[in-house]
Amino acid sequence: MAGIYLAFSFDRFPTLRDFPTGVSWLSCRMKTKGGCLFLVLFIELIILAYAYGIPQTCPADLVEGCSAVSDDDWKGEFFPGIPKIKYEGPNSKNPLSFKWYNAEEEILGKKMKDWMRFSVAFWHTFRGTGADPFGAPTKMWPWEDGTNSLAMAKRRMRANFEFINKLGVDWWCFHDRDIAPDGRTLAESNANLDEVVALAKELQGTKIRPLWGTAQLFMHPRYMHGAATRSELYAYAAAQVKKAIEVTHYLGGENYVFWGGREGYQTLLNTDMQRELDHLATFLQAAVDWKKKIGFNGTLLIEPKPQEPTKHQYDWDVATTMSFLQKYGLKGEFKLNIECNHATLSGWDTDQFLSDISEATLVMLSVIRNDGLAPGGFNFDAKLRRESTDVEDLFLAHISGMDTMARGLRNAAKLIEDGSLAELIRKRYQSFDTEFGALIEAGKADFETLEKKAMEWGEPSVPSGKQELAEMIFQSAL
Ligand SMILES: [Mn+2]
């Protein structure tokens, strides 16, 4: 039956009329009336059994046969046996508990959850397959039916919110096309998005909201040469971003992100960089205008990334992006969404969960100096390893990431409270805190004055404790 079903490629849910009625009626004429009805019912029954019971294999462009499948067929829990994750302290041996992250605990006058503002990334957590440039997908979560249908999108959204609630975070992030399938037209894509977003709004409840939403302008082949910088696509990309800003606003999102993964060039020989940058700035200005027009008060963020997937991207790094915003008068309208994994590219974005406590300490020191991240937050733009294929692994990865950041916060607080870090830095620059140092910093020491002083002082001393080491290095160099 499956073969017949696929061969007919229905563009709506199949009914009796779609079946080889000529054949059935022919055979009916040769049989009794009751037998014919039985045959017809039997065929219909098999169609229904196929449509509802057997995993669907609908293509990504979505046929209605698939969208007719209800998303309510997944009753109960997506993560059975996994309780709400609690703080149990550093001595706990329970892998499904927090050792360092204690959401309600106050550190330096703020609750840990408010310092962190942790967010789950829908794409890695729920659309990550374990595929990499060398290998096929390894993950097939139990709730997946192999389709990219609207019904599947809704079921996945239910799984997302069960996960978020059990993990105990208040934020999530999404791309438009992660959460709802592409349609055959832009209008159909928008309608699909609306349907999934309506469910997300309901499942969010009063506490959970998007840290940010964004439009995915890089996966579809149409964007292979860019979106805002490829002229014939400019309008299409703008329409997609317009819609994505609207749904982010509708869901109560705090920010909206731009990631220009394809906005750049492979070679300057075929690129008018000036015009492309102008187009990008015009595009971003239009986004600012639209945001204001619909009353969306969220912050617009740009996520810099060097190279990959384009050889040269326009948002190369934080400094380049700031210069771009300054040049085009957009500095007051955008902030930055910095992804630490963009500093550790290995041919592609490694998307690893942070597990280095000293790195987390440095990050949290910056966050404390900034008095928090709000309206920003920490989004886990990180995915499970290819080898992590158990549902439980989704929790373990996030727990470990959250605990690493929490331990970083505790360390940073300690360094600040006991004043040791400030003292270390003070000592490093203490030679400038002298009368002559002040002269230098005021720009009043010219080369003649400095030369005179250098002659007078002789060989500069190596900072204490390192004298011996410096001498050893000097000796071995001889
Ligand atoms: Mn990433």
Account of the 3D structure:
With 478 residues, the chain is of the alpha/beta class. The protein has three domains: 2-53, no CATH class; 91-420, Divalent-metal-dependent TIM barrel enzymes (TIM Barrel); 429-477, no CATH class. It is built from 18 helices and 13 strands. It has helices at 2-8, 21-29, 33-53, 64-67, 112-116, 122-127, 150-167, 176-179, 186-204, 234-250, 273-293, 318-327, 357-369, 391-417, 420-428, 435-441, 447-457, 467-477; strands at 86-87, 97-98, 106-107, 110-111, 118-121, 171-175, 209-214, 255-258, 264-265, 299-302, 312-313, 334-336, 378-380. Strands 12-10-8-7-6-5-13 form a seven-stranded parallel sheet. A hairpin with a 2-residue loop joins strand 3 (106-107) and strand 4. Mean pLDDT is 85; it is low at 1-68. Bound molecules: manganese (II) ion. Manganese (II) ion binds next to loops.
Span between termini: 85 Å
In the predicted model, the low-confidence regions spanning at least 5 consecutive residues are 1-68
In the CATH hierarchy, the third-tier topology of the largest domain is known as TIM Barrel
- Count of the domains: 3
Number of helices: 18
Based on Cα principal axes, name the global outline: globular
Instruction: List each distinct ligand once.
Output: manganese (II) ion
Measured by DSSP, the beta-strand proportion falls in 5-15%
**Beta-strand segment tally:** 13
Q: Indicate the mean pLDDT.
A: 85
